What we know:
The chain is α/β, with parallel strands linked by helices. The chain is built from six helices and ten strands. The chain has helices at 6-14, 36-46, 73-82, 116-128, 149-156, 194-201, and strands at residues 18-22, 27-30, 56-57, 87-92, 107-111, 133-134, 136-137, 160-162, 175-178, 185-188. Helix 1 packs across helix 4 (116-128). The longest helix has 13 residues, at 116-128.
Amino acid sequence: MRALGAEAALDRIAAGGLVGFPTETSWGLGADARSDDALARLRRWKGRDADKPISLLVTGEADLARLGAEWTPAARRLARAFWPGPLTLVVRCGARLAEGIAGPGGAVGLRCSPHPVAAALAALALRRGVGPLTATSLNRSGERACDTRADAEALAGDEVALVAGPDAGAAPASSVVDASGAEPIVLREGAVSGEAIRAALAGARA
């Protein structure tokens, strides 16, 4: 399947299809996070359990209103320190999303990528009122994420269309911080170190 431009990729997502896109870490798998059918298709393709939440791709703080995000002081401080970048922030979101996007209590992982393709898709989705888009990794459940376009092409098959543009950055996976409560919790230490996260929360970026 030929690579799609951003507009064509959004058309496919709006119609319930799946799209693979590069980020600064690895390749992501995009679907309309408001569509139960699209999420069911994504889970079937990945072989992902229905009880595992799925993160979302956002433009940054400008994208939070439509998600009804409860932006805690910790989330705000970390976003301003590391977004756009490889940090997923988990916050509660009140917007209607497909079943299984949110974890317990309505918490959702939000990812703001600096990669030009991922950033363009997120911005275009916001302008067109599509999505938000999922930001789960492009891989079968339990297998490694695709680091290169060649890996993505070998895996995608006919069901996942890839977006044209620069390849993924092949950097370490994003760090994940649960900022939904009074005290933020580092759930996964990845590209952003725990030390840098603690320093940002203390008011000084490492």
